[in-house]
Amino acid sequence: MARGRSPGYEDQREMILSRAAQLFALRGYTATSMNEVAEACGLSKPTLYHYFRDKYSLLVNIAEGHVSRLEALVDEVAREALAPEPRVRELIHRFVEEYAGAQHAHRVLTEDVRFLDDADRARVLDKERRLVESFAQAIGELRPELAAAAMTKPLTMLLFGMINWMFTWLRPEGGLNHAAMAPVVADLFFGGIPAVRPPGAGADTEAAH
Predict the structure, then answer these.
(1) Does domain 9-202 have CATH number 1.10.533.10?
(2) What are phi and psi of 151, to 5 degrees?
């Protein structure tokens, strides 16, 4: 009879993925060893191999897990049945706030996906394409003429350009955090610079008008 998993198995597994993502993000996937992952986790190598068979398995789980969590956010927002603009705004907010706790995993996804084999990379990229399609569909419903001109995907990619690279400059210890930046990104996307309000000034600004 197969031995069941311990109650803390999933928590331990997520801890390992988090520490591995941090090492991969800071040192690079190829420069990080399983010895270093085990040390960062406070585990022996045999214990680490109980959870993941090799470093490649860590990479697959980090990249695919990050995209899968974003897919889950898209599904949650879809169930709210929002109108197109509020839907895109909510998606932006959810994604930006998700990145606040997933900066290392996101860096691994953007920089190390090239180390995945063809089948694994195709699966991850397919998930990413579905994320783009979800945003593009909402934009198309808001502006049908843009959908007719095949502009919704380019606009989505421009939006993702703002969101996806925030990890390169936005620091948790800085004056702005991800929660403050989410509405700024949404305002900038929908209205350009004239629509951007300083964080925390939205209600006062609207009242003044």
Answers:
(1) no
(2) -105, -10
